[in-house]
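Following the same procedure, the fold was encoded as tokens, giving this record:
***
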Amino acid sequence: MRAPYSFRSVRADPESAVSSIHVELTMKSDIAALLPVVDELMLLIRKSRCVPGGERDVECALREALDNAVVHGNREDPDKQVHISCRCEPGKELSVVIRDEGPGFDPTKVMSSAIMKGAQSGIPLMRLLMDEVHFEQDGREAHMRKRAATMKGS
């Protein structure tokens, strides 16, 4: 059985004192692809130690963002894909961009609706777990960033 995703590129920055890692993946627009993709990304994130102690938050936000891209963005259309770009800067931060091939959406309308319904998932949860979340390309791209926690007293 073929993997439900493929690596487009994996790069490390040799100029950096602590090498940053940039991975690009493409996954099938299929709910069954979520677990293996999140597992693969989390393996990279844990090994790179870009956000030590923040891995659970990142994993949950990744699941939500990928689920949104597959279900709401691509509407589980098997002819569409989800594109993921993940940059790990060890000890500093993680940034992830998730792009679907759907029609897009207005994030402000979705947020107001979610707040009125008291939703504790999707975009509100992503914003709670990550340091930054914003949308581009008419809502087709979710940009998320998590910074490494700073030590208290330093």
Q: What stands out?
A: The chain is about 35% helix and 30% strand. The radius of gyration is 16 Å. The first strand starts at residue 5 and ends at 12.
